[in-house]
């Protein structure tokens, strides 16, 4: 119930004017409701999220917000909505260039006259950058706090996201929906043109075109309030009002680690190679996350694949732990949970085992073909933290590949990255690879425009999906190069010290470009493609869609499509085929008697490809070290819902999200069943008056009755009848 | 759209009928019983007509518009004929019941005259027919929107309510004329009632040209009203006496002690 998809019935087409005297179109399809309402098919709302101190997002009334349509032409036109328009409340239709902070703040301040906003999403990205995220992402839960170093806190040195307007983190009292620029929206515009346009300054006449949006959110105020309300157990079926955000982190190791024995592992020294999975935007479940998420983890997946072959030939003395964190957008849910688990001996290794951290951040854009290695200036001052060696080996690796890799050149804090949570626990050497020297080069950070088009993943026209799948884009080559650097660096660092004999092929082994191409296609264009289909179990087939993968982390109860995909891909890319039956494979064992393998390995039965002359797929078992670890903020385990150290983000629940348009025919727009709160204060006063009058009347009647009964002898004469006294 | 339209249309459609019920029928339990029985008979006629229509639509070709239109006309005619048949059946039933009531009761005179039965059963038919005509429209009128986004006329709710009012009153007049004609064996009057019912029902095919359907309906309503008045025993003299409160028989009959 928490993340119901958009509902809306199917009648969205305009019918021709019915001029004939016969208006019956067929059996059972003529209903009065269809004459009145046109339901919207594609409704993407903005939902309410809560944290320890605030609620953000949008809210509508329980019975929907009704407003007269108004298509906003310019910023000056907002005055019509807020002051001069004669038929408030208005429901404002915005084209996306007008969806800016200044207009939205004006609408927010005049919200008694604004019933809602509908934003028409364009089909192409805008030219100038737009980011609804804050200018300093995750500023309170990173490592740079007042205790650590006050001069670096709150983005004092570098503002990471200068284009950020902070719209995603504002609270609105009206619903804001996103509409696609398609036929339904054309119907809306046409309705506005036909009925609502003010001609030559005259007021538009009734009937007017109006829209009703439903997106009532159950949770209010903050996380502590809504979690407390979750626990109320008055009825047999208690109603939940919110759910914590979270999912699962995906991790794998080059050497098998015993996952059942948690806590410190003797003689184990681990290098964590981290990347972030998730992203977000202003609207619910619209999160293309191309540059902010996909570029990073696809690179890491490619590197993991390359290293598989190399590490099998010459096993390194340090294990590499590939970790893909979920929920990093919302105050580092995944990485804070992993660090917490490591500190509490709840993870396969602990912080003493961690040698260093290498994180791949946003690497997709590579303006002027340079990569930047960010490190933490505070921990570098400590001599035991040897970041210098890391950076040198990375630079050596890059030289061999003709890529320029530099440090920022001045003392700059780390950009928002999962590595910051590790530093919060203890100083560890680590580097974050990014494509920007100081502020983000990503102009659409955490916005709905951060999609394949932004990464220049474009295909020649007239390619079928299968042909697009294998078409090698420039971006694929870019990411490949980065993955190579990482691959080479790791090899240099680990293998060169360990054994003098280096297989030279593996150093410059250009692993297949098609891998990266297919991954980019699958995550950014269409997850239902043949390459992905061959690498997933049969029951996951139905979860693949024809749209780009959604990177929003979602609530903790629902495992997202993305986590599963990354898990299966990582298993295929770092694991090996095992000759085991399907039954044994699905029971995590090598044969019937095996009870030990499940501690070290995980097994997944993938459906594979169909041979050329048959339609039945030949499945096989993949043995790998891929595991899932829970990514739910420790604040919910500790029940500390006002925590300042951990993420406290929750998502509100709702009943129905839908919208419809219709004509309204009189001034009594507000008099609905039940009375909508626009006039509620008036009704309240009116009812109060009624109450008072009735009470007075009751008193007078009782008074009269009493005196009458007394006079006629039915009541004792001694009784006092003055109720008014 | 909204409460105003809902209440307005409800009172337009059912106002006169409810006030007739309250002032002339509600006090007498026997009349109430016969009213409800009449409503039930109308309901059964509708059930039969809809059964036939449903089956015929299922076996027809759903894509052909002319066939569907023809089917609709057939449905309307069949429904009207069935309603009148059931009115006749109810008349027969009431005649038998009246004789039975007479033998059972202590008094010498019949507790309820056939004229009163005609009025009451006609009103019963009218109530049920009106309810089925207009209730689903009223339910949709409560929401915030009004008809018109696809180009339909905006007066949909209002004209439906007025049509329903006409139908309810017409059923009442038809009942009176029909029973009177059956009593006096005047079969041409029965045929006239059936034909006027068919006419009114077929006039609705003029919609959405509401003027073309409502005005003739109200003309027919007025004419049927006058006919029913005369067949119930009214005359200009009675009317004048009643209006000026000089009709002693009426006053005596309706005098109630305090």
UniProtKB/TrEMBL annotation, chain A:
Cellular localisation: Membrane
Keywords of this entry: Glycoprotein, Membrane, Notch signaling pathway, Signal, Transmembrane, Transmembrane helix
InterPro entries documented for this protein: Ncstrn_small (IPR041084), Nicastrin (IPR008710)
SUPFAM superfamilies (alphabetical): Zn-dependent exopeptidases
Residue ranges of every copy of the Nicastrin small lobe domain listed in the record: 45-219
Database matches in CDD domains: M28_Nicastrin (cd03881)
PANTHER family linked to this entry: NICASTRIN
Protein name: Nicastrin
Organism of this sequence: Sander lucioperca (Pike-perch)
Record-level GO cellular component terms: plasma membrane
Membrane topology, from the record: Single-pass type I membrane protein
One Pfam family named in its UniProt record: Nicastrin
Family named by the database record: Belongs to the nicastrin family.
Any one GO biological process: Notch signaling pathway
TrEMBL record, chain B:
Keywords: Membrane, Notch signaling pathway, Transmembrane, Transmembrane helix
Lipid bilayer topology: Multi-pass membrane protein
GO BP terms in the entry: Notch signaling pathway; protein processing
Subcellular location: Membrane
GO terms under cellular component: gamma-secretase complex
Segments crossing the lipid bilayer: 6-25, 32-59, 71-90, 117-139, 159-179, 186-206, 212-230
Top-level lineage group: Eukaryota
Entry's family note: Belongs to the APH-1 family.
Job of this protein: Potential subunit of the gamma-secretase complex, an endoprotease complex that catalyzes the intramembrane cleavage of integral proteins such as Notch receptors.
Protein's UniProt name: Gamma-secretase subunit APH-1
Species assigned in the record: Sander lucioperca (Pike-perch)
């Amino acid at each position: 119930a928490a993340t119901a998809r958009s509902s809306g019935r199917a009648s969205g087409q305009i019918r021709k004017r019915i001029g004939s005297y016969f208006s019956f179109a067929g059996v059972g399809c003529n209903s009065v409701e269809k004459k009145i309402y046109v339901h919207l098919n594609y409704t993407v709302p903005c939902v309410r999220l809560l944290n320890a101190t605030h609620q953000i997002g949008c809210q509508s009334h329980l019975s929907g917000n009704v407003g007269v349509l108004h298509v906003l032409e310019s910023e000056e036109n907002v005055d019509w909505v807020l002051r001069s328009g004669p038929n408030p409340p208005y429901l404002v239709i915005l084209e996306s260039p007008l969806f800016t902070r200044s207009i939205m703040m004006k609408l927010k301040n005049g919200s008694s006259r604004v019933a809602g906003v509908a934003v028409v999403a364009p089909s192409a990205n805008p030219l100038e950058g737009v980011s609804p995220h804050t200018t300093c992402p995750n500023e309170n839960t990173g490592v740079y706090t007042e205790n650590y170093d006050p001069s670096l806190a709150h983005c004092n040195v570098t503002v990471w996201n200068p284009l950020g307007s902070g719209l995603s983190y504002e609270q609105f009292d009206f619903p804001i929906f996103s509409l696609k620029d398609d036929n339904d929206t054309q119907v809306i515009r046409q309705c506005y043109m036909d009925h609502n346009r003010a001609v030559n300054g005259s007021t538009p006449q009734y009937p007017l075109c109006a829209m009703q949006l439903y997106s009532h959110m159950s949770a209010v105020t903050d996380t502590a309030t809504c979690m407390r309300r979750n626990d109320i157990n008055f009825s047999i079926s208690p109603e939940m009002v919110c759910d914590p955000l979270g999912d699962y982190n995906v991790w794998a190791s080059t050497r098998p680690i015993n996952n059942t024995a948690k806590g410190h592992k003797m003689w184990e020294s681990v290098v964590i190679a981290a990347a972030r999975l998730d992203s977000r935007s202003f609207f619910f479940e619209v999160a293309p996350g191309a540059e902010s998420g996909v570029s990073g983890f696809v690179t890491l997946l490619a590197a993991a694949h390359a290293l598989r072959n190399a590490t099998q030939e010459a096993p390194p003395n340090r294990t590499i732990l590939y970790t893909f964190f979920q929920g990093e957008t919302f105050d580092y849910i995944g990485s804070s949970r992993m660090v917490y688990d490591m500190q509490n001996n709840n993870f396969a290794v602990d912080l003493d085992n961690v040698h260093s951290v290498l994180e791949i951040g946003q690497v997709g854009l590579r303006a002027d073909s340079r990569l930047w290695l960010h490190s933490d200036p505070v921990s570098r001052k400590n001599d035991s933290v040897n970041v210098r060696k890391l950076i040198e080996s990375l630079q050596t690796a890059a030289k061999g590949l003709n890529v320029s890799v530099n440090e920022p050149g001045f003392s700059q804090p780390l950009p928002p990255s999962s590595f910051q949570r590790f530093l919060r626990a203890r100083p560890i050497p680590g580097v974050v690879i990014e494509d920007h020297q100081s502020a983000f080069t990503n102009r659409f950070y955490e916005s709905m425009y951060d999609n394949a088009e932004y990464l220049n993943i474009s295909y020649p026209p007239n390619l079928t999906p299968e042909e697009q799948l294998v078409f090698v884009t420039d971006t694929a080559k870019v990411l490949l190069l980065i993955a190579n650097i990482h691959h080479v660096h790791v090899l240099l660092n680990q293998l060169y010290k360990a054994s003098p004999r280096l297989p030279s092929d593996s150093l410059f082994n250009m692993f297949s470009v098609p891998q990266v191409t297919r991954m980019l296609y699958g995550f950014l264009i269409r997850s239902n493609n043949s390459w992905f289909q061959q690498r997933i179990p049969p029951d996951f087939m139905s979860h693949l869609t024809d749209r780009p993968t959604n990177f929003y982390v979602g609530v903790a109860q629902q495992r997202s499509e993305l986590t599963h995909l990354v898990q299966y891909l990582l298993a295929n890319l770092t694991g090996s085929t095992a000759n085991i039956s399907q039954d044994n494979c699905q029971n995590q064992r090598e044969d019937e008697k095996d009870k030990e393998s499940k501690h070290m390995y995980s097994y997944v039965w993938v459906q594979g490809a169909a041979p050329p002359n048959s339609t039945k797929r030949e499945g096989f078992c993949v043995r790998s070290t891929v595991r899932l670890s829970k990514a739910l903020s420790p604040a919910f385990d500790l029940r500390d819902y006002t925590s300042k150290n951990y993420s406290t983000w929750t998502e509100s629940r709702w009943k129905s999200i839908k919208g419809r348009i219709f004509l309204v025919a009189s001034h009594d727009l507000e008099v609905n069943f039940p009375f909508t709160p626009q006039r509620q204060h008036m009704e309240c006063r009116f009812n109060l008056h009624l109450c008072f009058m009735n009470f007075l009347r009751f008193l007078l009647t009782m008074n009269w009755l009493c005196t009458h009964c007394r006079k006629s002898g039915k009541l004792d004469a001694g009784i006092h009848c003055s109720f008014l006294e | 759209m909204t409460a105003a339209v809902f209440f307005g249309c409800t009172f337009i459609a059912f106002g006169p009928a409810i006030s007739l019920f309250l002032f002339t029928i509600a006090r007498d339990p026997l009349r109430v019983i016969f009213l409800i029985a009449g409503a039930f008979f109308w309901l059964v006629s509708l059930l039969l007509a809809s059964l036939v229509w449903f089956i015929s639509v299922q076996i027809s070709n759903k894509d052909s518009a002319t066939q569907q239109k023809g089917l609709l006309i057939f449905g309307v005619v069949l429904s009207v004929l069935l309603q009148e048949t059931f009115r006749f059946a109810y008349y027969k039933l009431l005649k038998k019941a009246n004789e039975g009531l007479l033998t059972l009761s202590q008094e010498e005179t019949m507790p309820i005259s056939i004229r009163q039965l005609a009025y009451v059963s006609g009103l019963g038919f009218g109530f049920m027919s009106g309810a089925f005509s207009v209730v689903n429209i009223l339910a949709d009128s409560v929401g915030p929107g009004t008809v018109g986004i696809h180009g339909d006329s905006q007066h949909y709710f209002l004209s439906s309510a007025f049509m329903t009012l006409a139908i309810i009153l017409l059923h009442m007049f038809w009942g009176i004329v029909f029973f009177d004609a059956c009593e006096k064996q005047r079969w041409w009057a029965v045929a006239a009632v059936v034909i006027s019912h068919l006419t009114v029902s077929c006039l609705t095919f003029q919609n959405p040209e509401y003027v073309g359907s409502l005005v003739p309906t109200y003309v027919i309503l007025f004419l049927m009203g006058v006919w029913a008045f005369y067949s119930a025993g009214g005359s200009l003299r009675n009317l004048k006496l009643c209006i000026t409160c000089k009709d002693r028989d009426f006053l005596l009959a309706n005098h109630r002690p305090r």
